[in-house]
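Chapter summary example.
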Amino acid sequence: MAEKITIKDIPDEEYIYPGTRACSGCALSLAYRHALKALHSDGGEIIVTVPASCCTVLHGMYPVTSVKFPMLNCAFETTAATASGIKAALKAQGKEDIIVVGWAGDGGTADIGIQALSGAAERETDFIYVCYDNEAYQNTGMQRSSQTPFKGFTTTTPIGKMEQKKNVPAIMAAHGIPYVATANPSYPFDLFKKFKKAKEMKGATRYIHIISPCPPGWGFDTKDLIKIGKLATETGIFTLYEIINGDFQLTGVSKLIAEGRKKRLPVKEYIKAQRRFRFLTEKDIELIQKNIDEKYKEYSNKIM
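The structure predicted for these 304 residues follows.
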């Protein structure tokens, strides 16, 4: 039986100081907070490297920082390469128990950083790579990325993006790495549990893809952050799962939906709650709904 995480399992210690430069209602901050608690649990020690991104803003400007652990800023495209270098340096010093984490946005992962990430995974570099996916280059003015969903508004897709979103977790799974997972900060226990698993699996690259709702970029009120995150999973837009040594398994709410124990909500509820989707037609919404229906039919058939 899978280990059940409760509030009692979440460490009290905080690794991010109050008053960061992150936006109000930022999902990145919430995800980062719980991920750090999981990585530091049981006395873990980490070094994080972060490229130009919203996370850099959260950390603050030199010589001041908002976090309690070593963090290295790197160039936009070099997160995985920098993490590989840190890992090699630690190995040369005999410090192989320190966990190295690369933490980047979707632009720095799926677009300009994918070459370095693919190379690190192929070399079986022992580190955890995290993509927090706010579905655009939000830090530089909300430009389109390959993670921007179909018909999503950005400043470079003023009538909505015409292409589908790239499936980066599937790309990473194709590398044969031992652990790939998706997570949603609206479900912190599921996220915490997955980071603990990634921490315990050593010897090769582990990849976690986190959906990160962005109030200014997606067009919703900051008070609705948790609601939007939950709608992403409850409508089937963002599925929670793990791929452990090639074995795919749904987790959390997504598993309950596929098993018929929880009703999946209409995708329209997620779309209509965000101004970035204002260009979608009813036909567009029907197409998205059909694709999700087919995907969950496949999930249900696998479980049955």
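To summarize the output: The domain at 10-303 is CATH 3.40.50.970 (Rossmann fold).
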